[in-house]
Structure formats: C-alpha cells, structure tokens
Amino acid sequence: xxxxxxxxxxxxxxxxxxxxxxxxxxxxxxxxxxxxxxxxxxxxxxxxxxxxxxxxxxxxxxxxxxxxxxxxxxxxxxxxxxxxxxxxxxxxxxxxxxxxxxxxxxxxxxxxxxxxxxxxxxxxxxxxxxxxxxxxxxxxxxxxxxxxxxxxxxxxxxxxxxxxxxxxxxxxxxxxxxxxxxxxxxxxxxxxxxxxxxxxxxxxxxxxxxxxxxxxxxxxxxxxxxxxxxxxxxxxxxxxxxxxxxxxxxxxxxxxxxxxxxxxxxxxxxxxxxxxxxxxxxxxxxxxxxxxxxxxxxxxxxxxxxxxxxxxxxxxxxxxxxxxxxxxxxxxxxxxxxxxxxxxxxxxxxxxxxxxxxxxxxxxxxxxxxxxxxxxxxxxxxxxxxxxxxxxxxxxxxxxxxxxxxxxxxxxxxxxxxxxxxxxxxxxxxxxxxxxxxxxxxxxxxxxxxxxxxxxxxxxxxxxxxxxxxxxxxxxxxxxxxxxxxxxxxxxxxxxxxxxxxxxxxxxxxxxxxxxxxxxxxxxxxxxxxxxxxxxxxxxxxxxxxxxxxxxxxxxxxxxxxxxxxxxxxxxxxxxxxxxxx
Length: 582
Fold this sequence. Notes:
By secondary structure, this protein is mainly β. The protein is 11% helix and 37% strand.
C-alpha cells in the first residue's frame, strides 16, 4: 500500500519528524497527543516509556488511533520481553488480538485493511515486525514497525499518512507533536489550548531541537495529564498513572555524551560512534550514546524503513552504451562498461537532488577484473566519495571469490552494501579471477541539504590495465520520500531512463523489478536471479496468471525481466516484450 499525501513519523527515543519536515526530539515519559483534531474525535496517541533504570530517554512502546469516522479504536503494542522476538500485538475496540491472527484481515470493519510487515536480514532472520493499517474510505494510512533493540528491548516506530484530499484537512485544525501539514516548519511547535494555543518559536540552534527546549515543548503541551483523555487500553498490571512521569526534569547526561562520546563510552566505542553517525546526525549520536554504535546503526536502519522504497523516483541511469558516455569504454562481445585502471582511475559526477527527497539510493555493477591482490605486495583498493565522505569498498581477494559473498558497512550515516553476483571465473577477458559485484549505497538527507551530491568511484592499483582493472556499469540513482510523490524538480546529470510508476493501488499489491527483486503481498523481500520463465502469481481457482521471462545478459549470473505476460479470465493474453525496468 503506497502512501501519497502528507506524511509524519517518529522513531527511537523518540525522534519526531513533522508533516513539514521539522526534526526534533521528545524524550518525555508518559502518554502523548501525537496528532489531534480540535474539531472532531480524530486522534493519534503514543506511549513513551523509559526502558532502563539507569537511562532517562524513552522509546515508543504503544500507539493508538481513533479516526473519528466510526471505525474501532486500534492500539498496537510491543512485548515487554524481547527474548521471543518483537511481534506486536493489537487491541481492537479494547479487546486484545495477536497481530498474526486471521481476524486482523478486516478487524471486523470492511473499510479497514491490514497488511503485515516482516523484514529479514541477509541470514533470513526477522529484522523488524509490523503492520500497515489502511482506511479505504478516507485513504488514511498508519504504519507501525517494531525492532529488537540491542539494549532497549522492543521499540516501535510509526508513520502516519493523510491524503492530500483528506476532507478533515480542509475543514479541521490539527495540532500535536507532529505539527500541522501546511509546508511551513515555523509553525510546527504549537501550544496546547490549555496553555492559550497559538505557536511557539521554533529554535534555530540544532541542539535546542534535541534537549531542554524540545523537552519543555513536548511535555508542557502534549503530555496527556488525565486518564479520561487517554485512548489506551490497559492490561491488568498497567495503569495510566503507572506510565505518567511528565513532571521529571530534562535529561542532561545524553547531551554530554553526544558532545564527547569518547569520555562517556570509552575511546574505541566513542570513535566508532562518530564514524557510524558522522558530524551532522545528532539523533543518531543520541541513540548511540544510549546503546552504543550498534544502536546507532539500528536508528539509521529505522530511518530507511520509514522511507517508502516501493515507489521511489528513478532520475538517473547510465549503462555506457553511448561511446561518449565516459572517457574509456571497454567492449568485448556483449560486455560494455566504463573502464577504470591505473591510467584512468576515476569516474565522477554530481547529481541534483529533488527538494523533498528523504533518501537517495545509488546502485551499480562493479567488475573486478584480473589479478587483484594476487602478488601479495600491494592492496588494490576501491574508494567511493559521497560528498565529503570517503567509503572503502573493502578488499577484494580469494576469500571473496564465490557467489553471494556479502559485505555491509555504515560511515557518516551512509549505508554501503556489496554483494558478489557471480562466482569467480573468466568473464571473457582472459583471467580466471574476474567477478561481478552489486553495490548499493543509501544516503540520508543530511548529505544533500545543499540540493546536490557529489559521487565518484576511484581505484588504486599496482599493475597496469593488462593485469588488473575494473568496470562500472548500470549506475542507477533513485530518490525516495516519506510519501510516494517525490517531486521531479531535479535535472538529471547526464541522461535518464524514467521509471514510470503505476497509479495508486488501494488493494493488496506485490512488486517485481530489477535483477529481479521481489516484494511479496506480505512485504517479504527477496531476489530471484534464475534464468527462464516464471510464475509471478497464479490463481488456483480461476484463469488468472502473471508470468515473467528472466533472461541472463552476456555471460553474467545476473538476469533481468525481458517479457511479461498477463491472463485474466477470458480476455486476450497481453504480453510486454523488451527490457522492463520495473
């Protein structure tokens, strides 16, 4: 289910992102008005809980929504104990229902659609659990995801989407921690009506958006102070007063740590934390100060999870078929790519970025050609520049010469993944040590605030190009927003292959694209790189079927979709031929 509209979210301890893109923290302890209409019963609330006795920051343990449209109030909780995973459970109209229960397919209301989210790590273990709750009559959408924190138990992150044509936005005033959707960050800090209403000045000092002023704003205005105002359902051992702690003073220890993590965490952990987060990501530093570098990485993963990767806008593509597309193009048989070596070591470009992009993903194929590192006297290296950040693609060698070898790292908030797409062998260039790797880079918003981003690939090699070299092919740049409608206001750097996205589907959806990547109906993500004709979806009870033809290009292990055929009932079979980018 794709979100097209105003989007706001929060995660971690808790890091808020308003509808207008203002980012700040609310580390209060209690139940909070996250989003509330002053003119109807619409309200979204969050329960922020201190997870460790020796740490003051809080995390989200429960979320509840009343749309005010007659639908049952829905509440999503995570378990207190993470030893058996963090599968959330739900209260529907105050009755507890396990999240995996078949009853949740409609939760007793035909206008409410639910979709389970399960995201897995490379080793197939579950990395996050959650649900998308979609209201068909209004197109309001709530996404709630749970992760197992390295130190903080089970933690929720949430995203709310209000469609642009949502009737309540036209006729009602919305307030709360997520602000009011009007493209104006300056009015997102609003006072509760009990404090006179109106707007508070938003701090210009980034530190004030994380610590004392932010804490005072959230607890003095949006902490729920009376049980009658709470939408939450309580288990036998729970109570409103058991969660209410909004009278506590602000935490100061975390701020001290973010300024000097080496002094608080120790030299090694402090330096690791700075490497992971970079100099401009205060929220990442806060999570790292509470739980160490691994917790900082989980924060960055959660930010990626909240971006809708099903509907990014591809705005740059280069496959080097044009002889003038790079200073040196290598071509042999069906192979053609930009050629890098000792005498021609770098490929560089600058991309303009869409104004509302939250994340940029750069993907490309990297050819390891010839005798890399085989002489034992020199380390052949590949370096990536993303703006001012230098990323090491790590060493290539004989211990990595097999299919699916995987490496992942994080520097300055940028995620880099490299995966071997072929076994080591002869790609037709005369060496038995050639190999193709798929490289994926995910770049957060902090790195392209200027509206553009510099990208380069540089090799450092000991031998000449007859002995060792590299190739780069199929560079693809995609912009993602919290919503599906990333504006196309960035002019491409060279040339484009536009990926046209389908109209919004208000029912269940699944996706296949690339070489080939799959997202199932239940949001399970996997790759199918077989060559042949495959059934994508088939009804066992009717004449409906979708098939795809995956074809290997050149001598590579990689395949792409070359043909798609659809049969529906007694209608003629429709077939699309040619390279299908999505």
